[in-house]
């Protein structure tokens, strides 16, 4: 019989151990895979839930932000409600201070030294002999036109300062930046005001009227102090404005014409479209922030001056004073035109024109005029 195994050795049986290890390893790997899958799934679900929570929380935050109170706009340092309290209290305080000032100055004037001072300096000094007497018609016209312009300039300036969204825009046909139509109106009035003022100053020096508002003697200062004491004591000086102003008036007019007006022009030009904004050297030498800090207080000065000026015109002989300025009528006798109503009616007519211009100065009516010099658009 043939034998396939000549040596007679028994063949080694096939080992099943590696297969079992592989199976166990595969099970372990599978288990780990399942665990890792579960872990990753858990993490993913937790991440999703976290993001969902975050997403859900966002709208609440937004809602909370929306619920915040709106900022109340202030008019100067106070809100409108605060002004309702501060205004009356401030007015009462001013009245108390004014009453104390009147009593204090009256006590001073009763003393011999102060009474002698007022007698020596009655409130005005004699003008040079070459000074003209009376007010010419051109001066009355210049004054009336100046009042018309300055009222609208103040109104349009406040609109520019406090406007949120301009109602319309204007751009010059010769190029330049686009500006609000309110600013265009303000600057147009400024140009007319400067031209009127230049003509006024030239005529002042040509006709000699400058001597009425430019101090020509150092006596102006003690006389101005005397006039101030008389005003505060309510025993007002009784000068004849057709012939001469008291020294306090003269200093006030001089300051307005030769100090405040030039400051308004210089600062206004820096803030306007006429300024060469691309000139870096000029911009560094004269910063726009400086102009803004001066321009607004100058406007407030004009407002205070106008209020005091108008009050004194009516409180010291309204008909006589209005005749001097609006009708060019007067006399060396202060009582000559004290009952004449001509100047009053001229003044009343000018008021009607000013009020009409105030009411009609709206974008819808300004736009056709603005289009003559440029383009008007809503954006």
From TrEMBL:
Entry annotated with the keyword Transmembrane: yes
Places the protein is found: Cell membrane
Membrane topology summary: Multi-pass membrane protein
Major subcellular site: membrane
Ranges for domain Cytochrome b561 bacterial/Ni-hydrogenase: 141-320
UniProt feature, compositional bias: Basic residues: 59-72
SUPFAM superfamilies: Transmembrane di-heme cytochromes
GO MF assignments: electron transfer activity
Transmembrane segments: 83-109, 135-154, 191-211, 251-273, 294-315, 343-361
Region (Disordered): 1-72
Domain of life per record: Bacteria
Keywords noted in UniProt: Cell membrane, Membrane, Transmembrane, Transmembrane helix
Pfam families: Ni_hydr_CYTB (PF01292)
One record GO biological process: respiratory electron transport chain
UniProt keyword Chaperone, yes or no: no
Low complexity bias locations: 20-51
GO CC annotation: plasma membrane
Protein name: Thiosulfate reductase cytochrome b subunit
Taxonomic placement: Bacteria, Bacillati, Actinomycetota, Actinomycetes, Propionibacteriales
């Amino acid at each position: 019989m043939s034998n396939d195994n000549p040596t007679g050795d028994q063949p080694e049986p096939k080992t099943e151990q590696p297969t079992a290890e592989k199976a166990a390893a595969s099970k372990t790997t599978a288990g780990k895979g399942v665990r890792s899958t579960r872990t990753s799934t858990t993490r993913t679900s937790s991440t999703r839930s976290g993001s969902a929570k975050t997403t859900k929380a966002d709208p609440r935050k937004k809602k909370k932000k929306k619920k915040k109170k709106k900022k109340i706009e202030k008019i100067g340092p106070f809100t409108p409600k605060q002004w309702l309290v501060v205004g009356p209290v401030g007015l009462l305080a001013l009245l108390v201070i004014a009453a104390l000032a009147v009593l204090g100055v009256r006590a001073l004037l009763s003393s011999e030294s102060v009474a002698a001072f007022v007698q020596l300096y009655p409130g005005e000094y004699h003008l040079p002999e070459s000074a003209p007497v009376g007010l010419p018609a051109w001066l009355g016209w210049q004054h009336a036109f100046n009042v018309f312009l300055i009222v609208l300039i103040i109104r349009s300036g406040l609109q520019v300062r406090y406007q949120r969204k301009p109602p319309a825009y204007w751009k010059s046909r010769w190029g330049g930046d686009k500006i609000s139509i309110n600013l265009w109106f303000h600057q147009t009035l400024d140009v007319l005001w400067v031209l009127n003022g230049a003509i006024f100053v030239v005529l002042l020096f040509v006709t000699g009227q400058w001597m009425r508002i430019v101090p020509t003697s150092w006596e102006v200062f003690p006389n101005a102090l005397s006039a101030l004491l008389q005003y505060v004591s309510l025993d007002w000086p009784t000068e004849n404005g057709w012939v001469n102003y008291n020294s306090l008036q003269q200093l006030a007019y001089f300051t307005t014409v030769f100090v405040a007006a030039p400051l308004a022009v210089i600062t206004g030009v820096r803030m306007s479209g006429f300024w060469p904004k691309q000139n870096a050297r000029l911009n560094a030498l004269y910063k726009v922030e400086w102009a803004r800090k001066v321009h607004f207080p100058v406007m407030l000065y004009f407002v205070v001056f106008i209020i005091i000026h108008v009050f004194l015109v009516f409180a010291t002989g309204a008909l006589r004073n209005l005749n001097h300025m609006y009708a060019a009528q007067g006399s060396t006798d202060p009582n000559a035109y004290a009952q004449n109503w001509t100047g009053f009616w001229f003044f009343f007519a000018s008021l009607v024109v000013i009020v009409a211009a105030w009411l009609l100065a709206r974008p819808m009516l300004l736009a056709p005029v603005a289009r003559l010099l440029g383009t008007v658009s809503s954006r």
